[in-house]
Amino acid sequence: MSSHTLTTTADTGHESRFWWMSAVLGILTVAVGVAALVWPEATIRVVGLLFGLNLLVTGLIRAGLCLVVSWYPVLYRVLGVVFGVLSAIVGIICMRNVLASAVLLIVFVAIGWLLDGIIELSSALAGAQDPLRMWRAAAGAVYLLAGVVVLVWPALSLRVFLVVGAVALIVVGIAQAAVSLGLARAARRPAG
C-alpha cells in the first residue's frame, strides 16, 4: 500500500466526520425544490427568498467543507471557498432585491448554479480516489446545465424557470444526500 493511499484513507475519514453537513445541504436543496414545485403561484418575493436562501446556505456550507477537507488539492479547496462565498453573496443579493427585476433574479440564480456546478465538477475531477465522485460530477453537470439554460433564455416565463429550477434543485439535492450517505458509511468504517 502506497503512502498516497494511506493519506487518502486517513483524510477521507476526516471529511466523513462532516457527513451531516452534506446531508443538511441535500435536504435543504430538495426542500426548496419541492416547495417551488408545490407552490408555483408563489410571489416572486417568496421564490426569490427561497432560491436566495438556498444559494446563501449552500455557499456557506460548501465554503466550510472546503476549509476542512484536506485531501483535495489546495487549488480546488481555495476555488471551492471562493466560489462558495460568491454563491452566498449572490444568495444575499437575491434576497435583498427580489422585486427589482425578475430577470435579474433569474440571472443571479443561474450564476449561483454555475458556481456550484464548477465546484462540484472540480471536486469530482480532483478526487480520483473519491468513491462518490460520480455523484459529485452528476450534481455539477445538472447545476451547470440549469445555469446555462437559464442564462441563454433569461426571458423564460417565471413559471418555466420555477419548474426547471425546482427539478434541478431536487436532482442536485438527491445527489448531495447520496454523497452524505457515502460519507456517513465512511465515518462508521473502522480505521485500518
From TrEMBL:
A single Gene Ontology CC term: plasma membrane
Origin superkingdom: Bacteria
Pfam families with a match to the protein in the record: DUF308
Record's keyword terms, sorted: Membrane, Transmembrane, Transmembrane helix
Family annotation (InterPro entries): Acid_resist_chaperone_HdeD, DUF308_memb
Transmembrane region(s): 18-39, 46-72, 78-95, 102-128, 134-153, 160-184
Protein name: Uncharacterized membrane protein HdeD (DUF308 family)
Organism encoding this protein: Paractinoplanes brasiliensis
